[in-house]
Recover the amino acids of this structure.
């Protein structure tokens, strides 16, 4: 049997999980043809067909089912080796791979990343906008910024201020509607597939207000609210800075979530990673009032 290539195995795992050459290519940052070539190389090395194509995408063969668990173990060993190598650095040079939700990276992190880069010119920042903790667990990132109640217990976390959400609408929309004693004639802008049951409405300040329109993306929600489509619940650090939105009068915090900076335990001895974590925690803690909506 020919020697196996890790890149071929990596492509196999992405295809098995995504069941689509296009989705696997996007996940790996490869071209469609490169993914196909790696799959062909692996099938040639194994002397077996791993996937068949259908209308529903790539269907795993019995051979794929047999080797998937072993391939995952190889992946885990490679990630462990990468993390161990990264943890051995003792100089403030090299790359720090960061993942953060898009809204946080665009509206809060950028000035801090710029300040860090100026102070530590030997460190290069690689930023990926993502919500997944798997970025850390699979070795695709060194540091993750998240707002959640229960971060993965296998990760090392530093607390940030709690991220507070409040209710917003355009000034004109607020002027045209009544808001009193938990009652309103206004409508909520829905979150689409993110929460199709609208459970957040029942827990909010106007539980009987109807939901109209479905707009999952927060940037789009903000623009929709500016144009008078209804009320939205948005993070204070983002919405308070936008022209054309105001807090709904008489309504306090709608929800809050603990903020975290997370990293893998194997990277605690990495000087550049921990320097980055300490710097960002310190800078973001200075913005506690903005994050929690205590200032406008």
């Amino acid at each position: 049997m020919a020697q196996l290539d890790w890149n071929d195995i990596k492509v196999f795992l992405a295809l098995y999980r995504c069941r689509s050459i296009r989705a696997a290519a996007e996940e790996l940052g490869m071209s469609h043809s490169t993914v196909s070539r790696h799959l062909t190389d692996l099938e040639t090395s194994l002397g077996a067909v791993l996937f068949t194509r259908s209308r529903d995408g790539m269907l795993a063969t019995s051979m794929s089912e047999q080797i998937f668990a072993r391939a995952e173990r190889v992946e885990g060993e490679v990630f462990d080796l990468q993390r161990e190598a990264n943890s051995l650095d003792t100089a403030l040079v090299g790359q720090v791979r960061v993942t953060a939700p898009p809204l946080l990276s665009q509206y809060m992190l950028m000035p801090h990343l710029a300040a860090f880069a100026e102070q530590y010119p030997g460190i290069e920042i690689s930023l990926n906008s993502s919500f997944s903790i798997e970025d850390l667990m699979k070795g695709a990132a060194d540091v993750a910024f998240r707002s959640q109640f229960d971060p993965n217990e296998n990760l090392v976390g530093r607390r940030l201020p709690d991220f507070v959400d409040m209710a917003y609408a355009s000034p004109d929309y607020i002027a045209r509607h009544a808001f009193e004693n938990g009652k309103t004639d206004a409508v909520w802008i829905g979150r689409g597939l993110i929460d199709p049951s609208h459970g957040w409405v029942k827990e909010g300040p106007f539980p009987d207000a109807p939901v109209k329109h479905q707009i999952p993306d927060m940037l789009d929600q903000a623009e929709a609210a500016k144009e008078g489509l209804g009320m939205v619940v948005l993070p204070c650090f983002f919405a308070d800075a936008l022209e054309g939105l105001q807090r709904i009068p008489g309504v306090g915090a709608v929800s809050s979530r603990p903020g975290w900076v997370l990293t893998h335990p194997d990277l605690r001895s990495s000087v550049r990673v921990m320097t980055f974590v300490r710097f960002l925690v310190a800078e973001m803690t200075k913005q506690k009032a903005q994050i929690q909506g205590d200032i406008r």
